[in-house]
């Protein structure tokens, strides 16, 4: 049940960023099925691909004092946009901003979901 709730929050964050920014940060065609599928793909990419990329990028991340982590998060969003039809990224800085906002919203919502126990 919590997994489903987390996916809906992630889909809402994706769609919310696109809707509130009016396509300036991210373009999502519609909530169902595009944002929901993108949320599931983002969860899979973050679980499988992101740890490998973070490990390979560890020296650069250390040199940039952790700021390269933002680039890695944006790259994961680029991967999702390449896989999911109907989800488009606008530009590099916009994608970084969108990934930061999505990450913050899902992190806060995840803490709220977990605190219900």
Can you give a write-up of this model?
The two termini are 13 Å apart. This protein has a domain at 37-107. It has a two-stranded antiparallel ribbon with strand order 1-2. The chain is mostly helical and 117 residues long. It is built from 5 helices and 2 strands; from the N terminus they run αβαααβα. α1 (2-20) packs across α2, α1 runs antiparallel to α5 (92-114) and α2 (31-56) crosses α4 (68-83).
Structural class: mainly alpha
β-strand amount: 5-15%
Portion in helices: over 70%
What's the Cα radius of gyration? 14 Å
What's the shape? globular
Strands ordered across the widest β-sheet: 1-2
Low-confidence spans: pLDDT under 50, at least 5 residues? none
Task: Please summarize the sheet with the most strands.
Answer: 2 strands, antiparallel
Number of helices: 5
First CA to last CA: what distance? Answer: 13 Å
In round numbers, the mean pLDDT is 94
Would you count the extended β strands for me? 2
Write the H/E string, N to C.
Answer: HEHHHEH
């Amino acid at each position: 049940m919590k997994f489903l709730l987390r996916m809906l929050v992630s889909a809402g964050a994706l769609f919310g960023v696109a809707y509130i920014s009016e396509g300036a940060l991210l373009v999502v065609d519609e909530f169902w099925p595009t944002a929901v599928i993108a949320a599931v793909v983002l969860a899979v990419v973050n679980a499988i691909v992101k740890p490998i990329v973070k490990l390979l990028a560890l020296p650069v991340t250390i040199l940039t004092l952790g700021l390269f982590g933002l680039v890695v998060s944006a790259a994961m969003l680029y991967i999702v946009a390449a896989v999911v039809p109907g989800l488009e990224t606008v530009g590099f800085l916009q994608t970084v901003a969108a990934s930061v906002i999505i990450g913050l919203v899902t992190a806060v919502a995840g803490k709220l979901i977990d605190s219900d126990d």
